Amino acid sequence: MPPVTPPGLRSGALAAAAGVNLQTLRYYERRGLLARPDRTLGGHRMYPAEAVTVVRVIKAAQRLGFTLDEISELIDVGGHRHSSAGLHERAAAKLAEVEARITDLTVIRDTLRQALDAGCDDLASCAESPECPLPFTVLADTKAGPG
């Protein structure tokens, strides 16, 4: 009777189906994001079909700004392990972070536009000009205060 091969996907098939490379799969395994797969008698990894979904979820969560540590905790919640917060709370917190970054980036964008409009070509010259919109002019005034 021939040896029984565990059902599932070999590493290359999983990587292709999930749109990642083999090193990514190994890394996710080491981080505990992806369960260690069964092995064939020849030592090949055999992942269950649902591993494709797990890897896709990890990649989607990364694109949404979640770190791998945060994703690990979210996956733990899905696995009914104990975690401090579920998807709803973490998504709300991530949204607040993103909105804060957008606010910061909007200020940066507006300041850079003002610098372009003011014709700032040289930082040293611009820093000495009262029309310069860049924040270091405020710092220069503060440091040059009463002496």
Automatic annotation (TrEMBL):
The keyword Glycosyltransferase does not apply. Keywords: DNA-binding, Repressor, Transcription, Transcription regulation. Gene3D superfamilies: 1.10.1660.10. Pfam families: MerR_1. InterPro entries: DNA-bd_dom_put_sf, MerR-type_HTH_dom, MerR_fam. SMART domains: HTH_MERR. SUPFAM superfamilies: Putative DNA-binding domain. PROSITE patterns: HTH_MERR_1, HTH_MERR_2. Residues 8-77 form the HTH merR-type domain. GO terms for molecular function: DNA binding; DNA-binding transcription factor activity. This is MerR family transcriptional regulator. The lineage of its organism: Bacteria, Bacillati, Actinomycetota, Actinomycetes, Jiangellales.
